[in-house]
Structures are given as C-alpha cells and as structure tokens.
Design goal:
The chain has 111 residues and is mainly alpha-helical. The protein is built from five helices and no strands. The protein has one domain: Winged helix-like DNA-binding domain superfamily/Winged helix DNA-binding domain (Arc Repressor Mutant, subunit A), CATH 1.10.10.10.
C-alpha cells in the first residue's frame, strides 16, 4: 500500500502512490502538530526526505513492517482529523473564492 508496493502496481500504480504521498504531506501540513514526535519524524522522512520504509526502519531500529503499520495508523488518524475538521476542504474553498475575487477585481480594473 505504501511506496514499496508501487513496484507491483506498474506505472499507473506509481501515480496513485505519488498522489497518496502528496495527500499525506498535505494532511501533515494541516494536522502534523497533533502527532507525536515519533509520528512526525517518520512522516517527514517518508514524505519529505523520500526515504523508503526499509531506510526508515534501519534508522529507527524497527522492522519495516512496524514503520509501515505506523504510517498506516498515522494516515488514518490524519484522514479522521480532516473528516471532522475539514480544514483542507475549507482551505481549497477559500482559495477558490479568493481567485474569483481577484479575477473580478482585475476585470473591474480594466474598465
């Protein structure tokens, strides 16, 4: 399900996995401060430092499976935060409104 499984999924699966990593990074940006230090550290190394599960497990002194399980739990936790708080959804809605306001202002400035 995480990066190592991309090899089995083929080219289309690589895009899906990339999208998952981007989504996890976005969730982390909004809700990362709610995670424990260890959870933050693993997510940062996986998403932002582009380390594999094996590399993270070697650094942590844990099994690859333990790191995989931690990332799965963190992803589920962050998705639950988004389901309850909807900060990302609200952010995107606000960005759309801002873009529309700016477009209207630009049209008015030309008149």
């Amino acid at each position: 399900m995480l990066r190592e499984n991309t090899l089995q999924q083929g080219a289309g699966g690589a895009q899906v996995e990339t999208d998952r990593i981007v989504r996890l990074g976005l969730l982390y940006d909004f809700y990362g401060s709610l995670l424990t230090e260890k959870q933050r550290s693993v997510v940062e190394r996986y998403c932002f430092d582009d380390l594999s599960l094996a590399e993270i497990s070697a650094e942590e002194g844990n099994s690859r499976q333990a790191v995989h399980d931690l990332l799965q739990r963190v992803e589920e936790l962050l998705e639950n935060y988004e389901a309850r708080l909807a900060l990302i959804k609200k952010y995107h809605a606000n960005q759309k409104i801002i873009s529309e306001i700016l477009a209207s202002a630009n049209r008015l400035a030309r008149v």
